[in-house]
Amino acid sequence: MYVGIIHSQRFMGRLFLFTSLPIGGWTGFLKWRSEQVKYEWQNAFPIDLTQYLAVRVFYEKEMIDLACRTKLDIPGTYNSIKDFLEKNSDGYGLYKDSQTRGLPEEIEDSMDLSIFDQDPLPINDLNQTAFSLVSKWEQFRNQQEIVVQALAVMHLAKYLNVTVQDIVKGGLTPLNTLIGWAEEFPESMHGPVWLKALESSFINGFVKRFSPNIENLKKIDSGEEKPLVSRPFSQTLFCIDVRSENFRRKLEEIDDHETFGYAGFFGIPLCYQGFSDDYQTDQCPVLLIPNNLIIEKPRDDHAQTTQHFLERKKYGRDAHTLLHDLKENVITPYIMVEAIGWFFGFRLFGQTLHPKLFNKGLTWLKKPFKVPLGTSVIVDKKENTDVEKEGTIQTGFNLDEQTRFVENAIRILGFTTFSRLILLCGHASTSDNNPFESALDCGACGGNHGSANARVLAVMANNPEVRKILAEKGLEIPADTHFLPAQHDTTTDEIAFFDLENLPATHQQDLSKLQRDLKEAGEMNSRERLTRMPDEPELTGNFNALNRAKIRSMDWSQVRPEWGLSGHTAFIAGRRKLTQGMDLEGRTFLHSYDSSKDPEGNALEVIMTAPMIVGQWINMEHYFSTVDVNVYGAGSKAYHNVVGNVGVMFGTQSDLSIGLPFQTVMDGEKPYHEPMRLFVIIEAPRKLIDAIISKHEMLQELVGNQWLHIVSLDREDMEFYQRQPTSGWNHITR
Which is higher by pLDDT, 230 or 284? Predict the structure, then answer.
């Protein structure tokens, strides 16, 4: 349905600005939906912004016409409205101020406010009232101006460490000077200045914390001190997520465990189809479009178990469908509430009063019906599959692709030796009754769980043919090295392992020790995280932190199961020795990188054009949600209604909420997340960073328009330099 007045691109732009942008949530969702060629609802019921604008304009026109006839007693046409406003600007202006900004108390006390409630408005009376209030209005504005100037002088005097009496004694000259300063620096300019001050204070203090580690690196790089090169007990690849920083630090404290930071999709863009799942998921940053499908299937020796599993799955789906149909029917809900409503009462009281005990009992009840099923992922490319016949996506990866992904990981992370057991640890989160759960999952995996990518990379890295090709390229992985996929639950700090059927018997003892150390690290990490939770009681003594974290994940009334990525400040790409031993408080993205092994900057280019971009998006999401949580954020979770399986809104009549909720970024009235632009600290030469930025328009826009800060720890002198949009690199003293 189109409206005839939409006749030019310029006019459509203005129309869109005034009608659709004020409800940016729904408009943004429709824009995203119109661009998704694989979104099934868009294919079934297509819509674009032009169609949406046409619908909006139609209803806007009808509503304007109704309002004009009801309130102003004129037709809702452009000429009628223009003539009315030209003739009655004072009276209508008074009415508009009363409905928007509000009238000063002195003005309201001198008039009959019921005049604004009449339909239609007595416009002649309003014109006369406005005319009679002109002198009072001017007097009020003059008084307000004097008050504002007086307050400005008082604040300036305070910060200049002089008294107001001293300023008054000095006569009009210093007084006018101070007032001039205040007027030349209006409130609208305060925000950018305070932001720069906050960021400058942070980075100047932050770089000083690296000094001890930098001095050690200088000795190693100069050959003065030989680094200890021994085979660690284990090596673990964690996501660069800020929540991994805590866990890595705790694990390294326990024993000889080496850790690395790598984007959580492990450099493999893929589409994943879980066994018995209804939908496929894109396991990569939204910057990328995956072209390879990975399918999970039951293991070959689980044929009979698979049949039982599918039967139980079918029974469960049938029961769910029946319950849904009964609830949606016109008559049956009345009978159903009486018949089985009490059953749902058990869940209501159980999850509210004692969530852990309830979930334990529920697990016990489900156990006889649960069919454990071993699965594997199909990584090798299959020819002539049904999906490939459609020409849209290929199943699996060929040998060259697998080799490239493993080689990229090894070279980017700077492996110098290989342990017997290398853990590939993706991450996810667990919470109940949480519409924002995907915001706590892996951003590099498109807001999904990271286990699929970990399993795929493990299969590739354990492939003898891949290892043979890598050995020919000078990257020899020892025969006794085994890659094992796992997943870190960032809410409960539990580690889940996958594909243990592939673990050699010779590595069982290694795994047992690693599991013990990971559990200990999880306990230590949970203790640290829980102390930051405002709703946790004072945690002292010998308490079970993992148990407390588990309860938070089960509690469906918990509005803050974890802080997520709130509080983050920086993204560091460099050697682990640069940050090892430092308590970064879970506020820093850590990506392993060794520029000495990347002279051409190929690995750094990948980091700066994918993980760094995702980090900047996360930073802006938190920044804007913090500075105005009700406009750019989603407001409080307590009032949210999930709508259409696409988002949340307030009640039944509101815009679709965007951004993060109040409980994610705020601690009461005080921001938990400090709204700063992301500091990206790269241990690499400035020339190399400049060359990469010059190759990519997106990086030029982000850096040139100061959406993030680039800081180089130059390997030539091991000093910090911050990149400026116009003046090159400025040295930061540490």
Answer: 284
Q: Find the helix packing angle between 24-34 and 49-67, rounded to 10°.
A: 150
- DSSP code string of 445-509: GTSB-SHHHHHHHHHHHH-HHHHHHHHHTT-PPPTT-EEEEEEEETTT--EEE--GGGS-GGGHH
Q: What confidence category does residue 1 fall into, taking pLDDT thresholds of 50, 70 and 90?
A: very low
Find all residues with CB under 8 Å of 414, minimum gap 6, and list them: 575, 592, 593, 594, 597
Which residues share a beta bridge with 296? Answer: 377
Contact 426, 442 (CB under 8 A): yes
Give the pLDDT of residue 389: 46
pLDDT of residue 392: 55
Question: Which residue spans within 586-626 are E strands per DSSP?
Answer: 588-592
Q: Which of 442, 440, 450, 448 is nearest to 566 (CA)?
A: 440
C-alpha to C-alpha distance for 453 and 428, rounded to whole angstroms: 12
With 0-12 / 13-18 / 19 or more C-beta atoms within 10 angstroms meaning exposed / middle / buried, residue 487 is buried
pLDDT in tens, 539-579: 666 778 999 999 899 888 899 999 999 999 999 999 999 99
5, pLDDT greater than 50: no
Angle between helices 451-462 and 399-413 (to 10 degrees): 100
8 A C-beta contact, residue 590 and residue 568: no
pLDDT at 541: 65
Return the number of other C-beta atoms located less than 10 Å from residue 357's C-beta. Answer: 13
Report pLDDT for 411: 92
Give percent of the chain above pLDDT 70: 95
Residue type present at position 291: N
H or E element at residue 346:
helix 332-353
State the DSSP code for 372: -
Structure tokens belonging to residue 83: 């003539």
Where is 407: in which H helix or E strand? helix 399-413
> What integer pLDDT is reported at residue 2 of this predicted model?
42
H or E element at residue 544: none
Dump the DSSP string for 138-183.
HHHHHHHHHHHHHHHHHHHHHHTT--HHHHHHT-HHHHHHHHHHHH
Which tokens in the block code for residue 680? Answer: 């990206």
Q: Identify whether the C-beta of residue 267 lies closer than 8 Å to the C-beta of residue 405.
A: yes
pLDDT tens digit sequence for 103-144: 777 777 777 888 888 899 898 988 888 888 777 777 777 777
Confidence label for 481 from pLDDT (cuts 50, 70 and 90): very high
Q: How far apart are CA 691 and CA 696, in angstroms?
A: 9
Select the more confidently predicted residue: 193 or 184.
193
The CA distance from 2 to 54, in Å, is 5
667: burial class by Cβ within 10 Å (0-12, 13-18, 19+)? middle
Tell me the C-alpha distance between 684 and 713, whole Å.
Answer: 6
Rg (CA), the chain: 31
Peptide bond into 120 cis (omega under 30): yes
Neighbours of 320 (CB within 10 A): 10
Cβ neighbours, 10 Å, residue 525: 26
CA–CA gap between residue 175 and residue 598 (Å, rounded): 61
- What length is written for the chain? 734
The backbone torsions φ and ψ at residue 598, rounded to the nearest 5 degrees and listed phi first, read: -140, 60
Rounded Cα gap, residues 658 and 624, in angstroms:
10
Give the pLDDT confidence score for residue 304 in this predicted structure: 76
What is the distance between the alpha carbons of residues 22 and 355, in angstroms, rounded to a whole number? 41
